[in-house]
Specification:
Blueprint (H helix, E strand, L loop, with lengths): L1 E7 L14 H21 L12 H6 L3 H13 L30 E6 L3 H15 L2 E4 L4 E4 L7 E5 L4 E2 L4 H18 L5 E6 L13 E7 L2 E7 L4 E4 L9 H14 L2 H6 L2 E3 L7
Parallel strand pairs: 4-6
Antiparallel strand pairs: 1-2, 1-3, 3-4, 5-6, 5-7, 7-8, 8-9, 9-10, 10-11
Length: 276
């Protein structure tokens, strides 16, 4: 049994000022691409009932460079490319259902064994975020949203979706959707984590490795972490009447590198709570 992942590069003209698209809009694009792939599959079916795959040159001529790079990377690391797929060398750590993978209609759809979808998907996710490629699975879960460009940070929500364009608008969209999703499901804790993509020297606020916000049963918790200490935002800093907007402002100050405003809030040292 296989599980599929779709990879595509959105058009630069997304209709938003900075090019960022929220996940629900990204899913609409993914559905359009899947419909195109299904139509192409039907049109290229031969008498034996087998699809004639495009040659690599044909695929490369009709796919963005990022998609070609991703396909090449997957083929280089795919277990089925080993002389003995049952005993692949260490560098062939990707478990795939078909080999080689080839772009079609300008996108890439990869099937993997269902049993290894989570592990292989994480490898795909890291590479897709690096290349700026959208990643959506067959269950319409967004794994990577790179629209709007790479701001140098990585934002993750409670579904572990990675967003590479981190500013006030995207933070508000991601956190707001996570809160709404968890409220509808009546389970789970909505949260976002903003972290550096690289070593600590790239942090927008020097010394701050990551900042996170979560809506727990006891209310909102906003925290940041340095190399040795853990700090929590005082409750009085959160506007109870408009908590989502208030928290988004704090996170956006970190993302934009506004150190003065971010650190000027009242933060309490919560490091002792983390000690065993």
């Amino acid at each position: 049994m296989s599980f599929g992942f779709l990879f595509f590069v959105p058009s630069p003209d997304t209709g938003t000022p900075d090019g960022y698209l929220p996940d629900n809009a990204l899913l609409s694009l993914a559905n359009e691409h899947m419909n195109t792939l299904e139509a192409a599959d039907t049109a290229t079916t031969v008498d034996l009932g087998q699809k004639e795959p495009p040659t690599w040159d044909e695929a490369a001529a009709n796919a963005p460079a990022q998609i070609i790079d991703l396909a090449g990377w997957v083929n280089h690391h795919a277990d089925l490319g080993a002389h003995d797929p049952n005993l692949p060398p260490a560098f062939r750590f990707l478990s795939v259902s078909e080999y080689p993978v080839t772009p079609e209609c300008g996108v890439l759809h990869i099937a993997v064994p269902f049993s290894t979808a989570e592990v292989t998907g994480r490898h795909f996710q890291f590479k897709a975020a690096e290349l700026g490629v959208c990643m959506v699975d067959d269950m319409e879960q967004v794994w990577v949203n790179p629209t709007g460009g790479d701001s140098g940070l990585r934002m993750r929500d409670s579904l572990d979706t990675v967003t590479t364009h981190v500013d006030r608008a995207s933070i508000l969209a991601v956190l707001g959707e996570d809160v709404d999703r968890r409220r509808r499901a009546d389970q789970g804790i909505p949260f976002v984590v903003l972290e550096v993509n690289g070593d600590d020297s790239t942090a927008p606020v020097p010394g701050v490795r990551y900042v996170q916000a979560a809506l727990t049963g006891a209310g909102w918790v906003v925290e940041y972490r340095t190399a040795n200490r853990h700090y929590r935002l005082d409750d009085g800093e959160i506007d109870a009447g408009n908590a989502l907007d208030s928290i988004t402002t704090v996170l956006a100050e970190y993302a934009s590198g506004d150190s003065a405003s971010f650190l000027a809030h009242r933060w309490s040292d919560a490091s002792a709570e983390l000690m065993m």
